[in-house]
Amino acid sequence: MTSTAMTYIVDDDPAVREGVCALLGSVAIETQAFASADEFLRIAEGGMVGCLVVDVRMPGMSGLELLQHMRDRGIQIPVIVVTGHGDVAMAVRAMKAGATDFLLKPFNEQELLDQIRGALNQSDQHLTRQQNQEQAALRFSELTPRERQVLDQIMDCQHSKAIAYDLGISEKTVDVHRFNIMRKTGTRNVSQLIQLRILAGDIG
């Protein structure tokens, strides 16, 4: 779990906010608490790491509406919605909108801790994947336009002879480009190259 991960609590009930903060503080989980969704959105940003625990029904902006605003802003941290028995249908709607899980009030403290730890681990894994993707994309950014053409052909499982024919160059030139592609990306064989290219995703 990354040391920068934060658990954000959004609930209009001060007793709930204080209780959850005290519980998480007792197991060294960092917290920030907010009395409304609007307060949370003032500090929320796309690159934040951690998880959100939010009451699904609050005055003003509901937890469900908050999820929509987060999605619109590209905020992808895991969300645990907390709800009363009468709001289960709304909690299910929240999960369909992207929430990770929901808890019924009054919730069990250990269950809450387990869900938060799971959400923080999920956030940490997402951050690691994102960093790996960015690093992979950076390697491919060094390729020349011609090397990118050759790479595209390699991704289509084309052999040097077919690539040479399609691009109107010699097989020897294709092999030189292939060597340079692997050197620049730090890969040792075509299998590693393909895996890294898939990891990089959209590289422009």
Supply database-style keywords:
Arc Repressor Mutant, subunit A, 57% helix, 2 domains, 5-stranded parallel sheet, elongated, Rossmann fold, 204 residues, alpha/beta, single chain
CATH topology of the largest domain: Rossmann fold
Report the portion of residues in β strands: 5-15%
CATH class of the largest domain: Alpha Beta
Order of helices and strands: EHEHEHEHEHHHHH
Helix and strand content put the structural class at: alpha/beta
Figure out the total of helices: 9
Mean of all residue-level pLDDT scores: 88
Shape: elongated
Main-sheet strand order equals 2-1-3-4-5
Question: What is the makeup of the main sheet?
Answer: 5 strands, parallel
User: C-alpha Rg, in Å?
Assistant: 24 Å
| Straight-line distance between termini | 31 Å
DSSP strand tally: 5
In the predicted model, the low-confidence regions spanning at least 5 consecutive residues are none
What is the domain total for the residues?
A: 2
CATH architecture of the largest domain, by name, is 3-Layer(aba) Sandwich
**CATH H-level name of the largest domain... which superfamily?**
Response regulator
Percent range of helical residues: 55-70%
